[in-house]
Amino acid sequence: MKTLKCTLEIDAPAHEVWRVLTTNELVKEWASAYVDGLSIRTSWKEGEKVTWQAPGGAVRACGKLTTFQPDRLLRFDYDGNPRAERGNFSETFELEPGDRLTRLRLTTGPLDQTAFDAMMGPARQALAEIRSLAEESAQIHRPR
Predict the structure, then answer these.
(1) Mind spelling out the 3-state secondary structure of 48-96?
(2) Is the bond preceding residue 122 a cis peptide, omega within 30 degrees?
(3) How many beta carbons lie within 10 A of that of residue 74, not counting itself?
(4) Residue-number span of the structural domain to which 112 is assigned
(5) Number of domains observed in the structure of the chain
(6) Up-side HSE of residue 13: CA atoms within 13 Å toward CB?
(7) Is residue 48 included in any domain, yes or no?
(8) Residue 113 lies in a domain
(9) Does the residue 55 lie in any domain?
(10) Tell me, what CATH number does 76's domain have?
(11) Residue range 86-108, pLDDT digits in tens
């Protein structure tokens, strides 16, 4: 089993990155790296259910939102998906605020080799889109 780990610096404050991670309309934009039109259904409350749904209603992943610490930590624990032949796994977004930059760490796993290989490219694309959305928003909201 493997764990996917990606880190990037974002030229935006943590609250802008957090907004991109937890606003349904923005999530749909960056989650399209995994499946075009993928959407999230959750109340954004710890312990509540989370479902990722593809267009047409197919469930891609479901589980619980286990950690919700604004501007710091977001963690989902997913139940296994027999159709995807994937067991239980977690996905964690950790934000480390700096003076101007925010470091974002994505950790996903444990994954078997097939799932790891399938997730690597889309995860990097999703993070690039998160960075783009957060930096664009930060530019709009920065004092002149």
Answers:
(1) CEEEEECCCCCEEEEEEEEEEECCCEEEEEECCEHHHCECCEEEEEEEE
(2) no
(3) 21
(4) 2-36+70-141
(5) 1
(6) 9
(7) no
(8) yes
(9) no
(10) 3.30.530.20
(11) 579 999 999 999 988 999 999 99
Residue-wise pLDDT tens digits, 18-59: 999 999 999 999 999 999 999 999 999 999 999 999 999 899
Query: Minimal CA–CA distance to 59: which of 82, 25, 75?
Result: 82
- Kindly give the pairing relationship between strand 49-53 and strand 2-10: unpaired
From 82, 65, 81, select the one nearest 73 (Cα to Cα): 65
Structural domain includes residue 46: no
Q: Are 16 and 141 in contact (CB under 8 A)?
A: yes
CB 108 within 8 A of CB 102: no
Find out whether 107 and 3 touch, Cβ atoms under 8 Å. yes
Which residues pair with residue 7 across a beta bridge?
105
Amino acid at 37: G
Quote the pTM value: 0.91
Compute CA distances 65 → 7, 92, 113, 120, whole Å: 21, 10, 25, 22
Query: Contact 85/29 with Cβ under 8 angstroms?
Result: no
Tokens of 2: 């493997």
Which of 144, 110, 134, 137 lies closest to 2 in space, CA to CA? Answer: 110
Q: Cα 114 vs. chain centroid, distance in angstroms?
A: 20
